Predict the structure.
Amino acid sequence: MNRKPLIVRSGMTRRQFLARSGALGAAGLSLPALLAACGGGGGDAYDVFFENWPLYIDPTEGETIGTIDRFAEATGLTMKYTEAYNDNNEYFAKIQPVLGAGKTIDPDIIAPTSWMAGRLINLGWTEKLPLADIPNVANLDDGFKNPTWDPTGEYSLPWQAGMAGIAYNSDAAGREIKSVADLFDPAFKGKIGMLSEMRDTIGLILMGEGIDPSTISTFEEAAPAFEKLEKAKADGQIRAFTGNDYTDDLLAGNFAACIGWSGDLFQLETESEAVKFVIPEEGGTRWADVMVIPKGAKNIANAAAWMNFVYDPEQAAQLTTYNMYVSPVKGVREIIAASDPDLAENPLVFPDEATSSRLRAFAQLSDEEEAKFDEAFSAITGA
Amino acid sequence: MSLVEAPAQRSRLGSSADRVGLAALLIATACLVAIGGKWVSGPLTSVVVLVLLAVIVGVIVLAWRGGTEARRLLAPYGLLKPGMLWLGLFFLAPLWSLLRISLSTKESRFDINYNFSWAFENYQTAFTEFGGQFSRAFLYAGIATVLTILIGYPLAYVIAFRGGKYKNVLLGLVVVPFFTSYLIRTIAWSTILSDEGVVVSFVKGLGLVPVLEALQIMDNGRLLNTPAAVIGGLTYNFLPFMLLPIYVSLEKIDIGLVNAANDLYSTNSAAFRKVVFPLSMPGVFAGTLLTFIPAAGDFVNAQFLGNPNTTMIGNSIQDQFLRQNNYPVASAMAAVLMVSIAALVLLYTRLFGTEDLA
């Protein structure tokens, strides 16, 4: 999975980015190597190191000063920021041999998706956050307190959140699409895209089946969704399981409809009026990428300073105007309302009661059950 | 075990140099395999490295002190050493470790250690769960190989015999697109073949959709994300690997041989069948190996041009290694792929192999 905001204001276009990151995946190179090759990335002297998803933070450009530079200005701390976090499972495969052997990885903060954070916390591969040094944690939105992946709230702080729903190309679909059931309409045979991120795809199909993905605990409870997906795949209904590159197929009209992420809508709207995003009638799923400190990190105090900084509503608001995801920080909406009232009213960025009530987060699974889910999903995606 | 026929009169040092050279080669290779395969760890590693260095230095000293005769006997082993050591470290050691992991189990899913336990069930999983991917890989790679011969042979023939002074330009034109990244070229095809793209519009305009659907090239009015697109991508990407060896073997055929056949009342087609084609077989043979082997393990084309029902074994191996963390099963699949390709190639060599290639 690859949840990154698509509003690109830096020199590299999204298309170039996808091509490069694709090449990277295939060649098995590391992003730092690519950045080094591009002449990006600073020296080794840093006070804190954050490894995050690509295009997830506002860069400094012209008059606008990016969050990292504002952080440096406010605290005097230099941050090393890399975008090597491209896929939860791949990143896990990369850090597993290191953290599993009791050694430390370089980053002081990483931002896995909540379920992966839950796995890292359960494995004991994360440090407790020095919450006493993060007074702004008081600004954490109530909806994110004591989450399922981190019941005590001591190990993680959300970075950004968002939702998965249905994105469709009205030209290719030829009609409005409103429900999960539409994805299984035989009229769209071979024109439907699904995400390779199991929780979003299965979660949404479960919603379509009337099963709440936030309450399931065993594979058997989710089995109807797997059966439905399996059948759709065998029938040729599904064209591809993709990461964030679903946006290309959607714009090209190869996908009539697919499962997509809310933040992408804004970029797609600017590229084509035909592309729309809806939270299906049956409801959508919500997710969060959360900051955790890997076990043995060297700069815990500085990591706390960073977390405190981005939990300042003023700072968080600037981030939101850039990446259009749901901010976990209280007070952001009020600040944005002053400068951009339309954005403040957008339910995909600031979900209202009606929207929130239609969203469910995927349950935190036990290791044993998760293995069954992953295995079944991998068998269906055909890889 | 002598690699060189030794002359009758040789010194005592000289005669032993032969055996010493071989022993040094084997010991040095074993040392590297031991390090690469992690047979040794901790302080023992330093000991093995010291042995390795001592052996190499010892042989050099022996060659230095032993005179011409010893050097002559040691030379073949010395020349073999870089290749052998390279193979030991980068082929034998990884192969050993791959086979070992393929027979191991993990205690838990996130365990980083593998316990070697003769776990043949990994191979069973590889066959039962990924049988479809195996057969697709061989089927697609086989069809693509045949297509590259059908496209590459005539092209190579024209360039070699009719290219004249434009030979190099024509060859250059064949190769130039391949200066671009493999991945970019494959992704470019997904744009070309897309549902609203040029090719599909053209085919629709000509009213050929039903024909192509009957031929199972198109599926439900689309070209992209079909088996045909995957095979097409493989064919396109591996064409030069077929064309160039065929070109090389055609190019060195003396055109006088065809004239001689004609003088002996052979028709042009008979001359081609009996003279040119047999002489170009080494090229076809080499091209087939260069195309089929990587194509069978390819995962890029299936990923970008295929759909969930066209995945090949390369996709499964990548997924098991990089996403599922299931090294034992992934290793078993890789081992099966390697063995089946080796078996197919051996069979192919038996049936079609030419003496010239050996």
